[in-house]
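Exercise 3.2. Students should predict the tertiary structure of the chain below and write it as structure tokens, then compare their answer with the key that follows.

Predict this chain's 3D structure.
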Amino acid sequence: MKKSLVLVGMIVALVSLMMSGQASAGPELEFSTDNGTTWTTITSTGSQNVEFIGSIGDYSLVVSSGTSSPGYMDLNVSVNSYPNSTTEELKILLSDPGTAYTNTSKWSFYGTAAPINATLQLTSYYDTAPFGTSNMIAGFTVPPEPASAKTSDTISALSPYFLTDQAILTPSTGPVSASFNMQLEIVPEPATLLLVGGGLTGLALLRRRVNKA
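Answer key:
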């Protein structure tokens, strides 16, 4: 029985290491309305959720579910400048500085948006640093009308990498508003699934041997 528990612990630890690094305090949000010159950072409170309700520049925002956990990121935002027009471009970033991925991973991206009097760009990235935007995973640009997009592919990264979701709202004329949701999911590579299957098979054989003894 003791050997079985040790084997289970080794399998879980190895799979976790292949999927991601150790999570720290949790995900963080960053906002900017001056092309990234200054940023407002919102941190989580030790959980896998980070939320924000308030004003950034000319905008009022409700980030109701900016969530991040190993393998999954979800950014859900409602924003407007009513009743005023604005010329400020709003940037929103979601990343998790405590989780680094080290393996080749399959990913899926899904986004929906409905901007008014503005263009909205939703993009997901991987980089060697949190909030990095060097390597685009997927994204799409939405004109002032409802739209959605869904795509999937594979990330091949030799070094540990971090995930970041970015939304850029560019106003045109009149009061601006937008609601959008973007989701990025990292799924185990076949080698990781094979490792889990092999470990479970080994556990079954070990139990069988112990029972016979």
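Discussion points: Confidence is low (pLDDT under 50) at residues 5-23, 191-200. The longest strand covers residues 72-85.
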